[in-house]
Amino acid sequence: MSKTSEIKFSVTLDENQIPESISWHATDAGLEKELDTKAIMISVFDTESDETLRMDLWTKEMRVDEMKRFFHQTIVSMADTLQRATNEDQMAADMRDFGQHFAKQMMQ
User: Fold this and answer.
1) Fewer beta carbons within 10 Å, N or C terminal of the chain?
2) Are 96 and 82 in contact, with CB atoms under 8 Å apart?
């Protein structure tokens, strides 16, 4: 038995096509309503081109210190995903080490 799950992003743009607000909802997340966010990074693997396609959006209200934190946490979570998906323990550890270096340098 298969099941379909949906993830929805809503982006409100200003007259210059710059995001003013971003919200999201996932049918399987147990959420009653859409949640607001200041940034999203979406990566999808295109099987036809064998390439990763990306979409990065952030609102005008996202502060630089928040963006730095967002990047640091993304690097660490990518290491966790790499480890779960490939069992590449050493490479995941190396990514976590880089994440710590990144945080130390960017959060000064």
Assistant:
1) N
2) no
Assess contact for 13 and 20: CB atoms under 8 A.
Answer: yes
Contact of 20 with 14, CB cutoff 8 Å: yes
Q: Are 35 and 23 in contact (CB under 8 A)?
A: yes
pTM for this structure?
A: 0.87
DSSP string, 59-96: -TT--HHHHHHHHHHHHHHHHHHHHHHH--HHHHHHHH
Q: Which residue has the tokens 């390439």?
A: 51
Range in 3-7, 80-84, 99-103 with the lowest mean pLDDT: 3-7
